[in-house]
Write a structure and sequence with these properties.
By secondary structure, the protein is of the alpha+beta class. About 25% of the residues lie in helices and about 45% in strands. The chain has a seven-stranded antiparallel β-sheet. This is Ligand-binding SRPBCC domain-containing protein.
Length: about 140
């Protein structure tokens, strides 16, 4: 399954890229499930991001590796791929795209591809994942406008 959300912001491409750091990652975490950041290396190939999701009755570890990163004058992107995933996911790839706009702003695109152990669960997870990433939109706008 794929989930894509786009958020236009007024800050220039390079400014937005420089803001993609541990502090932003922490601010983007939704209220549920609470997230504890275990490790944040950065957004370059080989970097690792690891967190613990707290579902109150149980906790799940999620570790992703930055698989690729590319920069041009028009776009900067990086891709994180799940290595250790919560039990309800069997595959995770998140492409973070920062695209320069004609007005010298930036379009932030979150492109998520995921699978669960069961096809029906893929569909049931879609609204939950969409909401988790829609939560980021006002944060992006506040920080980069």
């Amino acid at each position: 399954m794929k989930v894509t959300l786009q958020t236009p912001v007024s800050a220039p491409l390079r400014t937005v890229w420089e803001g993609f750091d541990e502090s932003l990652f922490t601010k983007l975490s939704p209220p549920f499930p609470p997230v504890r950041l275990l490790r944040f290396d950065g957004s370059y190939p080989g970097d690792i991001v690891s967190l613990e999701l707290n579902f109150l009755l149980f906790k799940q570890k999620w570790t992703s590796i930055i698989a690729s990163q590319q920069e041009t004058e028009q776009e900067i992107y990086f891709v994180d791929e799940g290595q250790t995933l919560p039990f309800f996911l069997s595959f995770w790839r998140h492409t973070h795209r920062l695209i320069k706009t004609e007005s010298n702003g930036t379009l932030i695109a979150d492109e998520i591809e995921y699978r669960t152990p069961f096809l029906i669960l893929d569909y049931l997870m879609y609204p939950f994942l969409w909401a988790q990433f829609a939560y980021r939109k006002p944060i992006y706008k506040r920080l980069f406008s």
